[in-house]
Amino acid sequence: MFDITLPALAAQLFTGLVLGGIFVLLAIGLSLIFGLMTVVNFAHGSFFMLGAYFGFFLLGLSGSFWVALAVAPLMVGALGLLVERFLVRPLYSRTLDDPLLLTFALSLVLIETVRLLWGKIGLSFNPPPELAKAVNLGFSMFPLYRLFVIAVTAVVLLLVWLFLERTNLGLIIRAGSRDPLMVRALGIDFGRIRLLVFGIGTTLAGLAGVLAAPMRGVYADMGVTVVIESFVVIVIGGMGSLVGAVVAGLLIGELVSLTAYFAPKLAEIMVFIFMAVILLVRPSGLFGEAGLLE
Amino acid sequence: MIRRLRAGLGAHPVPVFLAIFAALPLVTPYESLATQVLIYGLFALGFNMLYGYTGLLSFGHAAYWGLGAYGTGIVLAKLGVTSIWLGLASGLAFAAVGGTLIGFFCLRRRGIYFAMLTLAFAQLLYFVGFHLSDWTGGDDGLRGIPALPLALPGLTLSIDSPTAFYYFALAFVALAVASLKRILESPFGTVLQAIRENADRAAACGYDINRIKLLSFVFSALFTGLAGSLEALRLHVVPVESLFWTTSGQVVMMTLLGGAGTFFGPFVGAATFLVLEQQLSLVLESWPLVIGLIFMAFVLFLPKGIWGTLTGGTHYGH
Q1: CATH number at residue B84
Q2: ipTM of the assembly?
Q3: Residue A115 touches partner B, C-beta closer than 8 Å
Q4: E runs forming strands in chain A
């Protein structure tokens, strides 16, 4: 009934890894921001989208994909800093729902602004010529650009891990997501830590956006489905757990990719069914601690 | 005037509601606006029951709105049922089943996870609605919902004209408003508000808060489903966007503009939103941008919403 060949299956697994990498980059930012400041950043998908649009803009300006890849995430991160400072910060004393409501409205505003500036029609974004070819992996041909995305994701993950585990700042961030009150009592300027983490999270979202642009095109609401799926990744992985975000992100990537191969119509639905199963058997997520951050 | 209105609404909310809405079509520029205020107001009322009165922020109320609409639409357009009553009943049944199932799953996680889970399950239904096109019409929407007469014992009324449909919808919405008042004044309603204020304390008082939350979720889904069902009868079509996240966002904005946790906030918010949408879209193509900015300003500076600020309620108001 299905035309299943091993090489095709292996190629699909690689595609899942690419997709999973994008999820991981988004979920780590969401998870860091949530862990430290209990803000569910609904606009995370819009920062992802902005990464793609800024990348497109910079590509047109400089003609170089590498400039776009390096600068666009920083531009997104800079915008993220402004958002934290002027929009999210006034809400820390309110209920947990208020930042979510605000970032929801912000995502509407960002989507409409982008439509106003770049038009309603999606844009196409070509991978750089040096990566626009296929390589032979031994079992099948695979686009070089996608291998590049896997490599970048892996490097960035390693850097984030080193930052969190091996630097003083990382230590403060980890401590802050466990017990913000105690961190503050030790005389640490928590406001600046929050600002920094929001900046890092949005930069990662922007990076995911530029990386995804050559694979899925650039359009104004490209971030919405992705952010909902990243929420699912976090629910499955366990909120606040970085290992959870990585494992669940890759799992979801593979799940979507394999379902798209066997039953294309179910690809989008499987993510949510998987989430429902996890909620039944392990409500706190694969790596989450029950009751943490609830 | 506001003060007198407030006093009147406080003492006899349901008759005053009826009086205002009986006269509304006379003052709106066209009747369909009045009908929309009524139906979207009911949608926001359903959302408000869960967020404003129980303290649970759902970002997926499009699910029950869409289930109500498809529940009615599928029975009338696909199964050839010719009773408007059965159509409405089916919409309510869809919403109740959906609300019970999704509520059960979402209430397995507390706090902020809840919002994300409701959003995720609504998105799941959107994809189901999109792909199950034999039943839902998929991307084209569910078309061909017939204009049926209203069969009452002894007489049959046509509700085809905009005016007749308005008063038909008003009967149901008034019934919903009266039921909400009844629910909020019951011991159950008191516990809901206790959960909103402090869930741990309510649990310590011996209430099974998960069961009560689930019940509130199902009631909320029923009100929302009724609104969706009425909308399907009004438009004779169910667009697949009914289940889309933007619809969930819209009801969140309506309720908070009006004032979450206030009795009439949802209707005030729905009216404000719809008038804004209508006026802005005449002059500006990117009107959602303006609505988004207004909503951001409300979250930052006017969290009680219009009605909540006018009536001087607490953050949620009463």
Answers
A1: 1.10.3470
A2: 0.91
A3: yes
A4: 134-136, 141-143
- Per residue in B163-219, pLDDT tens? 999 999 999 999 999 999 999 999 999 999 999 999 889 999 999 999 999 999 999
Flag if B289 and A116 touch (Cβ within 8 Å): yes
In angstroms, the separation between the Cα of residue B27 and the nearest Cα of chain A is 31
H or E element at residue B155 = strand B155-157
**Residue B315 belongs to a domain:** no
Tell whether B318 is covered by a domain: no
**DSSP code per residue over B1-30:** -HHHHHHHHHH-HHHHHHHHHHHHHHHSSS
**A123 beta partners:** A218
pLDDT in tens, chain B (318 residues): 666 666 666 678 889 899 999 989 888 878 889 999 999 999 999 999 999 999 999 999 999 999 999 999 999 999 999 999 999 999 999 999 999 999 999 998 777 789 989 999 999 999 999 999 999 999 999 999 999 999 998 888 999 899 999 999 999 999 999 999 999 999 999 999 999 999 889 999 999 999 999 999 999 999 999 999 999 999 999 999 999 999 999 999 999 999 999 999 999 999 999 999 999 999 988 899 999 999 999 999 999 999 999 987 544 433
Q: How many helices (H) and strands (E) does chain A have?
A: 11, 2
The answer to whether A105 and B253 have CB atoms below 8 angstroms apart is: yes
Residue B181 inside a domain? The answer is yes
Pairs across A and B, CB distance < 8 A:
113
Please tell me the total count of domains within chain B: 1
User: In sequence order, what are the residues at sequence separation of 6 or more whose Cβ sits closer than 8 angstroms to the Cβ of residue B94?
Assistant: B67, B68, B70, B71, B225
In a domain, B317, yes or no: no
Domain range for B31:
2-310
| A94 contacts B124? CB cut-off 8 A | no
Distance from CA of B89 to the nearest CA of A (A): 28
pLDDT in tens, A252-261: 999 999 999 8
Write down the pTM of the prediction. Answer: 0.93
Distance CA(B311)–CA(B288), nearest Å, equals 28
